[in-house]
Amino acid sequence: MARLADYFVLVGYDPGKRGSRDGQGQILQRFPEKDWEDNPFPQGIELFCQPSGWQLFTERNPPTFFVAVLTDINSERHYCACFTFWEPIESAQPQSHPRNGDGEEEEEPSSPVQPAQLFAPKSLVLVSRLDHAEVFRNSLGLIYTIYVDGLSVSLENVIGNLLTCTIPITGGAQRTISLGAGDRQVIQTPISDSLPVSSCSVALLFRQLGITNVLYLFCAALTEHKILFLSSSYQRLTDACRALLALMFPLKYSFTYVPILPAQLLEVLSTPTPFIIGVHSIFQSETQELLDVVIADLDGGTVNVPECVHISLLPEPLLQQTREALSMVLDPELEVADLAFPPSTISVSSLKMQDKEIRAVFLRLFAQLLQGYRWCLHIIRIHPEPVIRFHKAAFLGQRGLTEDDFLTKVLEGMAFAGFVTERGAPYRSIDLFDELVAYEVKRMRAEEGNKQKILRHIKELAEKLYKNENPYPAVTMHKVQKPTEGCHLRLHQKPFPRLDEGTVQWIIDQATAKLQTAPPAVKAEKKCMVPSGPPIAAIMERNGNALANSARRLEVVRNCISYVFENKMLEAKKLFPAVLRAMKGRAARHCLTQELNLHVQQNRAVLDHQQFDFIIRMMNCCLQDCTAMDEHGIAAALLPLVTAFCRKLSPGITQFAYSCVQEHVVWTNIQFWEAMFYCDVQNHIRALYLDNSEENHTDEESPEEPQEAKSALEIASEQLRLWPTMSREKQQELIQKEESTVFSQAIHYANRMSYLLLPLDTSKNRLLRSSGLGDMESVSNSFVTNSIAGSVAESYDTESGFEDAESSDVANYVVRFINRFVDKVCTESGVTNEHLKGLHVMIPDIVQMHIETLDAVHRESKRLPPIQKPKLLRPNLLVGEECVMEGLRVYLMPDGREEAAGGNIGGPPLLPAEGAIFLTTYRIIFKGTPTDPLVGEQVVIRSFPIASLTKEKKINVQAQVDQFIQEGLQLRSCTFQLLKIAFDEEVASDSAEIFRKHLHKLRYPQHVRGTFAFTVGQSPKQAMQPKAKEKNPSLRTLSKNLVKNAKKTIGRQYVTRKKYTPPMWEQRGSQHFPEDNEDEISVSEEMDRSTLTPTTTMKPSDKMTINHLVERACCRDYQRLGLGTLSSSLTRSKSEPFRISTVNRMYAICRSYPGLLIVPQSIQDNTIQRISRCYRQNRFPVVCWRNSRTKAVLLRSGGLHGKGVVGLFKSQNAPTAGPSQADSTSLEQEKYLQAVINSMPHYADASGRNTLSGFTSAHMSSSGLGHRAKVITLSTPKCASAKGRDTPRGKWGSIRASGRMSSYALNVEIGSRLAGKELLGTHHNGTAEPGFLRPHRASLYIIGDKSQLKGVKPDPLQHWEVVPIEVFDVRQVKASFKKLMKACVPGCPSTDPSIAYLRSLEESEWLSQIHKILQISVLVVELLDTGSSVLVSLEDGWDITTQVVSLVQLLSDPYYRTLEGFRLLVEKEWLSFGHRFSHRGAQTLAGQSSGFAPIFLQFLDCVHQIHLQFPMEFEFSQYYLKFLSYHYISNRFRTFLLDSDYERIELGLLYEEKGERKSQQVYKSIWDYIDRLNKKAPIFFNYMYAPEDGEVLRPYSNISNLKVWDYYTEETLSEGPSYDWELAQGQPEPVEDTDRQDTGAPQTKRKIIWPCYDNRSRVEPDAISKLLEELHNLEMELGQIPERWKDTWDKVKASQRTEARQEGSRTPSSLLMSSGLSHHRRSLGVYLQESGVGSTLNLSLDSDTSSTSTPSSGKPGGRRSTSTLYSQFHTSESENRSYEGSLYKKGAFMKPWKPRWFVLDKTKHQLRYYDSRMDTECKGVIDLAEVESITPGTPTMGAPKTVDEKAFFDLKTTKRVYNFCAQDVPGAQQWIDRIQSCLSDA
Q: What is the pTM of this model?
């Protein structure tokens, strides 16, 4: 029973304090006057009666009522029901009674009553610990009514009755009370006091704020945020706060809770702790500056969450389900809102019922959130008081919610701590929540998603909640008097009377006396064991883990462990990587701990070193993925194991596993240790009581043994039930037992913690968490690591506020860490103080003892042999290549390429591989073996030339699953290779640094002489430094000096001119001469001519140079093209249009041009010198090729100078100092171009410029393009070309150009007309077109850069046409290439490789650049083919110009598609015309900043694209292109070094070959090397080569027709790049095959080929290579000298041709081929056909007319003569086998006898032997000239047993004695005779 009200208080306005702005209240009377013992009077009630301040009003307000809540120091809540009404005060005498400050007798009733102007509030207050708001309202209302209506009832009696009224607290009683004024009230108490009472408040809260807002508040309250309610109604504030608390059930809010906060206490809002507070909305402005408070405005229905506050919401799917359930309850119409025929009535629950339904939703929510919580309770003490802890990590882990913010915060919060204390107890009375969480979780699981069922459940729960608050449905009517309407407005209302304290006190005293005599009402508490509900595992379905935990994986883990314990180490090793991978899954980790546990129980804990190592690695891997919380209990399960497994290091010294698994955060987490400790304590306490019960009940319990073991909570509950019945001694005994159990566990844990926290090597006070791999000695054969104890303890202590001076001492740290742990757990679990002190004394000793044992272990463990690592394999080196740095042991990590790591193709992972990285003078080489034991036998090689390194960056890699992060390097090469290496722990970081420095030095030598091509063969000494070049003074000062000295020393000036004019590369910025001086530099013309034309006074050195120049590629090519010979140019024969000019022989005009150039016959050399200045880098237009049919020429030059071009195309001349001269230059330029045009035959017929007059308007009108219609040849639809093709060739992409310049997007009509008439009109003999169309085409097209030709005005009188195009510059090529490399060789794997690759390929824009180059080239080819000349004048004339010019020649002239021609093309256009190979390849230190620009590679890629489309037009194979791509950047050959012929001559490179031809194996020129290889093997030859005469190729250039070159993506890990042929051929394969056959096992011919490992072309060669190889082998076997492959090939082709003639038309197969594709010839055309004639090889090569197919060199019979000579020379000596057979031969000393195949060759006078009859490689030769005698022999050890003694014979030579044995005696005799006869013949 409890008092209904504790105190009645009368509070009034205090007139004495009116001076201040706000008045104050004062307590006028209170009853009872002395405090109750159990419940002191709360302070500050007067503040709460008028929360917004005591003020006077000018009119009477109606009475108000609200309930405020005060919380006392014991956090008991007191409900203050305030009833306020207003009374007038006398304004006439404001200072009425100054003397009595306490205002006891407020007004004297005797004074006359006057109407007053001001009204003061007065409050009647009831203070109670019960929350019966309605009863309070009625009771106070009754008192007011008695007063105001003047009823004849004593107020003292009513108040006395009110204060003595007692009611039961709970139990669902119904009580009727009367206060003695003829009133009657019925009070119902709730059935269970644990369930909150909410009447309608929750429903109202949702009405005011809405679902989402309330959910926000709910989550904010649970996660401990500050919440402030605002409203202008006090009652609503109280209700809202009450509602929020009701929603939080079963958690109780334990922070500041003030539903109504008075104005004077507003500063409480800035408290740092969480709160729920209500404030009147007039104070809204004061709440604005609160930054971290969630403000809910009840009147406005808003919730405002500040920016800095993050509220964690409920985890999905609970949030969604809660929302849906709430909307079903609050808005039932929503479900049927869309129905066509909505039900006529929808049952909407009453407000009270709705309130309960909402609460039911939240009750369900909590049951789902906390389901299974009882399984994570640890009971650590049962008697005298149960002590319970909650294992938060395990709960989150099992629920799979470790990442969930909300639940984590709730579990850490105070409310949940209270929940555990209150509800953790195993034996207590239970309520609705306990039942729900125990029995209904499964039902909720099952009903998920079924709205009807959910709603039904909610209604059932709501019924129960409603029943709890209103247990009796039929309530007897209340009867309470109410005051008359409007009574508060009465004018002459007497003030509230003063009550008589004595009367009230007397009533109270009597009542208390009566209560004391009454017997105490004992509330029968129904206690029982709290049900635990299903364990979490049973509820949570294993979502998504099905795959990860497949039984197969667990099987692997089990097998591996059993192999380890059975000592089958090889088997274990194979499974090991799979086990480590499986450890990512939780189930596998649990499985590991269980298996190991079984082995411990079987006493298998002492291991040998290898086993120990395996177990440690598994444990480490297992712990690696555990968080510090250890929510899955893995570390907990391993803890007993790490102190069990051990190995003997030496007698008496044992190393336990814990010393090797310390490197994990979990050991330093104090919460982990607490949870572990509590778990163990619980088990021990459970055991303690289990033993007891078993002793007592042994006989009874035996029948029901199988029942499952009782859980600790069940046992505890049983014990608590029995506790009151036990005797005092028994109780004491149990308490003592429990206490000592806890104590002994604490000691045990102090030991355990010292094990895991003290590092193995305690001498080093390593407090920072260093990986134990830094120092050498710790790499023993297990991963011995340092612990992290230090770092940990440090962090804890700084936090706890005291820091130790000797902070270095690990032991102190560990001691303090353990002390703190022990303090915490022992106080919580009630260990006595004496015991605790004892522990503190013990801990330092434990630690010290442990340190001593560790020292011994550490000493011994250092003596262990280190782990066996694979032997480092040495790479094969080239001749002359030397190691700069010995191999560093590294791991080669997989990068983004899938294949090697066993990616999408499958197959074992070749990477990561462990081996070493070698740095040689030429390459960076990795050689090693895969770490995966299944592929361990393979060798992995990855290498690239140092010169091709483009990027090197440091990275951190985890080399192996079980190892720690290591430093590594990522090296990227422009040969499309990437080395991602992690240094092994044995490699010191400074060796890695040295490696990088060396690498850098080799990559960027000071000078080109430092590159491998020069240093090869020398011992790596410092390359000689070139003489320092004189720095060029700036050109302006230079020219001024020149002008000064010009008059004096005109003769010498040319000497200086030669030295200076071409500025050095460094000065390219200031390239164009300052204009004002330009004219002055060129001195008088006569002088020029005399000094610059070759005259009789040529110096001998010049003559020498000329001879050299004539031998250069250019000159050979000029002669082939008929562009004149040197002699003709010297004698100036006028008949030829062009001549070879020697003007540049000393490289004086243009350093980057070759010495001899082709210029128009009519142009003088001195003119050339002036013209050259208009062009960038002085690269003036020169002819590089002429079309033999149309005689159109192709010219190349640099772009025009911005200023130098003055008069060429611009209409007005730029102002210059000497206009005449500037004009003359530009006129000369025009003259030059005109001379080129004049050289073309068809131009000459057309009688000069008059052609234009033939332009009739009719032709023009259709075009509407005016004079610009000249370029119309570039028609859009290309029809047949002049070759008489009749199939249209697809569309042409248009290269757009804007502006007035002629554009390629031509008028289609004209285009088609031109294309049709003009091209079809051309007859096969190439005669001129019909005259009227000619004017549409200019004679010379200048292809220039659009940006350069801005101001050019069209001139109708010129016969050249400027075609501006946009090209990409070198920067774009570089950027594109970088992206291409990243796409083809990504650094790390991407999520979706297929898409990522294509996307990044597209982003690189590489293919679109190739498209652009091909497009321009084909355009030029088309122009040349129709008879116009073309000048390509782009950028500086050495990048894209070179690409275009070379491609044009390749497409137009079949000669350049042969091996010889292609070489000539590259030498002429790329090397002689000065493509800057060194600069673009960044070959020296100077070029380092500019980076690598793959201009030449881009050209080769274009050739590759054309080769793909016309496979039969090229004599060389794709491999040839790849070979060049690789070696032009590899610096292995000198061919592609330096930037121009001039530089090569300067270094003495160009002509050195003459004298040094004999310079043995080291090939300085790539061409010599290719020639030599080509003689040996057909690797560079394309078997499909069957060219058509004079074929002009027009490849498609659309991006859809282009393919990514496989050079970029393929790699061969078995041997490294296959372009260093000697290295790749290092292991000849046939030998291996024979070895395999010797083994005797049945050998299949099949071989697995890995795409990224094997060299596919060698493992499965194409049919023809295979046949040639077989021919070669047959020749060897038949004893003939093998022919060169080329001769064989030519013979085969010739025979095939004759056969074709005999058969009449074609071989059937060529018919087959020519059917559909022969016109296009973009087809692949080799078919091998078995013909009936013997075994000749019949190759049908598709050619339109098989008879005319030319042999390989392009000139019929080109090489046949030499090859026939060659074969004649050899046949006489072809291998002669006079006699052969099998003999046993005794090997050298101590070697066994082996059968060998012997061949006696009389011709060569030698005895050769082979491994077997089939073998082609001779194993040895005995020269008969050296034989001294041949005698019968005797069998020695190991000789064949079955053979007769007489079959043995010995052969004695000058060097040694050979022992032989024949099959039988006659055989031996025959051999002896044969050899004798040979000897005698000799």
A: 0.51
